[in-house]
Design goal:
Elements (H helix, E strand, L loop, with lengths): L6 H18 L3 H11 L9 H13 L18 H11 L12 H10 L4 H10 L5 E4 L15 E5 L2 E12 L6 E7 L10 E7 L5 E8 L6 E12 L4 E2 L6 H36 L1 E2 L2 E2 L4 H34 L6 H26 L10 H11 L6 H15 L6
Parallel strand pairs: 1-4
Antiparallel strand pairs: 2-3, 3-7, 4-5, 5-8, 6-7, 9-10
Helix pairs in contact: 1-4, 4-7, 4-8, 5-7, 7-8, 7-9, 7-10, 8-9, 9-10, 9-11
């Protein structure tokens, strides 16, 4: 078993690290200032002209479409390289996402058919369109199978009625993937359908904006009032949205782990630098046992989560090579829990080491701590993932392989 990164993953990781150091970290003071000034508003933390420059530069470097299939014009480098890149990108708090934002790409790639490829998949893969997933509802957060938004068949149309909540990117997305109930009796087992809903579709309104902790998280409620859609807006098969949805959620949970690895590595690097530079009571912090243990524990925890996350990405890449579907739900749940809670601990240690400066906006640590706190809830809270892991082990026993 070879635990070293392949040469192509290592090389693109180094390229991404240089892009982050040259382009993103210098923008962090601006991001912190804009986030403090915007208050309750959902203003973008990166000005449009700066974002355009970052997109141009990242595209020149070949950092676009890393995991986009070749048939859609991408590099098709796979999940492991995507993880390496995502980890490097989140070494900085500057919230720049390399197009396209992958999880919805997997949903679209798996389910799009006919002219949906030209209308949605290709422009999305090229970074020309943005998307949002409209899944969560007031009574269906962690329990995705509990959604109540209805899609009724009326003549030749599907008619959507209901409300979604906590939908990220709802106002900026060019289209939404909306999960609706088409058969109440079947529910998640054959009664959930995905629809493609374009921006500006009659009957779709966004009445409420939620300002939450964390600089890069902003969510909205979305109302659907007699929204009429034709069969061409059905993504995948009628009633069969649950399986590709779970795959999409698993991809995002793996990405969340990569984000946490990036933040935690940054916090650890800052701790090591501070421990060497800062002196108290006539000795460097590096001589204090408590500081040594914080650094040692943080390093070990990062390495353990990195191995779990990279293994999951490797399994996804093996699926592509072996033409078989890998069940990633449990693995994604594991890395989501371990990574978010690990990053919480590591960043908190860094804040404690820096003292007053650690909780100030002079450093990125307080921003990182708020971002990671949100990640322990979005894409499924830790408690739900623990329940899922335990349920499968109690039902099926421990897996025979690693």
């Amino acid at each position: 078993m070879d635990f070293s990164l392949p040469d192509d993953a290592r090389m693109i990781g180094e390229l991404t690290a240089r892009f982050v150091a040259d382009e993103l970290i210098p923008l962090e003071s601006m991001v912190i200032e804009r986030e403090a000034e915007r208050g309750m508003r959902g203003d973008a933390l990166i000005p449009p002209d700066v974002e355009a420059r970052l997109k141009q530069r990242s595209q020149e470097l070949g950092l676009w479409g890393i995991d986009v299939p070749e048939r859609f014009g991408g590099h098709d480098m796979g999940a492991l390289i995507k993880c390496v890149v995502a980890q490097q990108m989140y070494y900085s708090i500057t919230p720049f996402i390399l197009p396209p934002d992958s999880p919805n790409l997997y949903f679209l790639s798996e389910c799009a058919k006919g002219d949906q490829v030209e209308r949605y998949v290709l422009p999305y893969a090229r970074g020309e369109k943005k998307s949002a997933l409209a899944l969560t509802e007031a009574g269906a957060g962690a329990d995705a199978a509990g959604i109540r938004l209805k899609a009724d068949r009326r003549g030749s149309k599907w008619v959507l009625n209901g409300e979604k909540m906590w939908i990220s990117n709802a106002r900026t997305a060019d289209f939404m993937i909306v999960i609706a109930l088409t058969d109440k009796e079947k529910g998640a087992r054959g009664g959930m359908t995905a629809f493609l809903v374009d921006k500006g579709t009659p009957g779709v309104t966004i009445p409420q904006e939620f300002s939450v902790i964390g600089g890069n998280f902003h969510a909205y409620s979305v109302n659907f009032d007699d929204v009429e859609l034709d069969d061409g807006q059905v993504l995948g098969e009628v009633g069969q949205a649950f399986a590709p949805l779970q795959n999409r959620l698993g991809i995002r949970r793996m990405e969340c782990a990569c984000w946490c690895l990036g933040y935690a590595q940054r916090a650890l690097d800052m701790m090591i630098e501070q421990a060497k530079a800062r002196h108290t009571f006539g000795a460097p912090l590096a001589d204090r046992q408590t500081i040594q243990w914080w650094i040692a524990d943080s390093f070990q925890e990062i390495e353990m989560v990195k191995l779990l996350t990279y293994r999951l990405a490797w399994q996804l890449d093996q699926e592509k090579e072996d033409s078989k579907r890998t069940e990633i739900r449990r693995g994604a749940a594991i890395v989501k829990v371990q990574a978010t809670e690990m990053a919480t601990r590591v960043i908190d240690r860094a804040i404690q080491m820096f003292g007053g400066m650690g909780v100030s906006k002079e450093l990125p640590l307080e921003y990182m701590s708020r971002e990671v706190r949100v990640l322990r809830i979005v894409e499924g809270p830790s408690e739900i993932h623990r329940w899922l892991i335990a349920r499968e082990l109690l039902r099926d026993g421990q897996p025979k392989d690693f």
